[in-house]
Design brief:
It contains seven helices and no strands. The termini are far apart. The chain is 68% helix and 0% strand.
Length: 149
């Protein structure tokens, strides 16, 4: 039996209740494996997936914790694609913390563009658009957010 259900996504059950409460069986299992680039990548992706699940429930504190852990690991890997994705999710988290409600369309568009650019490997542009998304949402100063991104 393999410790990781598939090699591209360790967190296929990222929506489970323990993960929402700060405990993840997937993370616990991955942390017991030898530290390799692949396990570090899987742990990073699991943190990203869990924060995304927490977004659905508005659990901003848990989102921040998982994003911080993912960022540390992605920096250790030197993985610009993952860092671009994390920057996008940090922009979403910032909007959610500030407004806690449905999306501001222009901020949503900028954050979505940032995510696409990071997937295409255009990391500097991705970070720039993620930052624009946060500035738009903060500048609006009304009860809308980037939550739905």
């Amino acid at each position: 039996m393999r410790a990781v259900p598939n090699e591209t996504r360790a967190s296929s059950h990222a929506l489970d209740i323990p993960a929402q409460r700060g405990r993840s069986p997937e993370l616990e299992a991955l942390r017991r494996l030898p530290e390799t680039q692949k396990t570090t990548e899987l742990i990073t992706d699991t943190h990203i997936d869990i924060q995304n699940a927490l977004l659905t429930f508005g659990e901003v504190e848990g989102m921040g914790r998982h994003l911080h852990e993912a960022e540390i690991l992605a920096r250790r890997l030197g993985d610009q694609r993952r860092l671009g994705r994390i920057a996008t999710f940090m922009a979403i988290q910032g909007c959610t913390e500030r407004f806690g409600a449905p999306a501001i369309q222009s901020a949503l568009s900028e954050a979505s563009l940032a995510q696409v650019l990071s997937e295409l490997g255009q990391f500097d542009e991705a970070v720039a658009h993620a930052e624009v998304a946060v500035r738009i949402a903060e500048g609006a100063d009304h009860p809308f957010s980037c939550k739905g991104i």
